Amino acid sequence: MKVDQISIFIENKSGRLAEVTRVLGEAGVNIRALSLADTSDFGILRLIVNKTDEAKAVLKSKGFTVNKTDVVAVEVPDRPLGLNSILEILDRGHVNVEYMYAFVERCGENAVIIFRFDNTDEAIQVLTRGGITVLYGERIYNM
Questions:
Q1: CA distances to 89, 113, 141 from 76, in Å
Q2: What are phi and psi of 20, to 5 degrees?
Q3: Is the pLDDT of residue 111 over 90?
Q4: Spatial distance between the Cα atoms of 37 and 119, rounded to a whole number of angstroms
Q5: Distance of CA 65 to the CA centre of its chain
Q6: pLDDT range class, residue 104, cuts 50, 70, 90
Q7: Would residue 33 be called left, alpha or beta, if left means φ above 0 and alpha means ψ between -120 and 50 degrees?
Q8: Burial code of 43-55, b = ≥16 C-beta within 10 A, e = fewer?
Q9: 109 Cβ contact partners less than 8 Å away, ≥ 6 residues apart
Q10: DSSP readout, the chain?
């Protein structure tokens, strides 16, 4: 139920983001979801891609610093208070959300949100006990 995410550390200067996407595209890697956080000096580009290991290898071969981490993809009702219903379940289970971002596609009538937790296994248990659909990586990579 975990999804592989890669994080790429990039200099905050013109052309670096384009270079990452070019390298991935030329390797046949499709970006499924992304988040970019930056400071004045560098950025952290977080990606869900269809070929995680290939993406990591090709980016490292081009000199990028890349890490792989586990995240969780959750179906969220696409309506007012939909996200809140998920966050309330996590709060009652004392699960801390480190960060989250939206997935580019929907799953039926639901949105998909990517979560990073301080304790991923515990978060998955809390979500599934709460009746929340947690999506498998294979489904996310091929949406």
A1: 12, 7, 18
A2: -60, -50
A3: no
A4: 22
A5: 17
A6: low
A7: beta
A8: bbbbbbbbbbeeb
A9: 77, 78
A10: --EEEEEEEEESSTTHHHHHHHHHHHTTPPEEEEEEEE-SSEEEEEEEES-HHHHHHHHHHTT-EEEEEEEEEEEEESSTTHHHHHHHHHHHTTPPEEEEEE-SS-BTTEEEEEEEESSHHHHHHHHHHTTPPEEPHHHHHT-
Backbone dihedral angles phi then psi of residue 6, each to the nearest 5 degrees: -110, 145
Distance CA 117, CA 123 (A): 7
Is the pLDDT assigned to residue 107 strictly greater than 80?
Answer: no
Burial class for 77, CB neighbours closer than 10 Å (0-12, 13-18, 19+)? middle
Give the pLDDT confidence score for residue 46 in this predicted structure.
Answer: 96
Is residue 106 pLDDT above 80, yes or no? Answer: no
